[in-house]
Specification:
This protein is mostly helical. It has a single domain, classed as 5'-nuclease (Rossmann fold). It contains 7 helices and 5 strands, in the order βααβααβααβαβ. The chain has helices at residues 8-15, 19-32, 39-51, 55-66, 75-91, 97-108, 118-121; strands at residues 4-6, 36-38, 69-71, 112-114, 129-130. The strands form 2 sheets. Strands 1-4-5 form a 3-stranded parallel β-sheet. Strands 2-3 form a two-stranded parallel ribbon. Helix 5 (75-91) crosses helix 6.
Amino acid sequence: MNKALFDTDIISFFLKGEELVVKNVNLYLRHFGYLNISIITYYEIVSGLLAKKAVQQLNIFEKFISKNRIIFLTESSANIASEIYASLRVSGNTVDDIDLLIAGIAIENELVLITNNEKHFSRIHNLKIENWRKIEIQE
């Protein structure tokens, strides 16, 4: 099992109690003790909950995040994301900026990205991804 960065969609599925995601995340937590979440994912979840005025869910998320690790965007991860953008733009296969920033953080920190968004992230050549909605991980 490799250290991982958890994308926004996987965190949402986990917090909603999706069975396979919960099982995989709990196994990962037994092994590593905490989840790595990018500051971008933090922003996406908090902004979405605030927009919905979901105060109770926001409180649950804040408790959840306090037990895990937020990885911040750095100049290096932004440069990695910029290089990916330039490469994808030339090929005509662009990806949303938010996804590029998450990929840059994962690559800089040598983390596998756990995501359900294979369509976008699979376009990024140096990024390792796993979809924990589709596979059961092994210890």
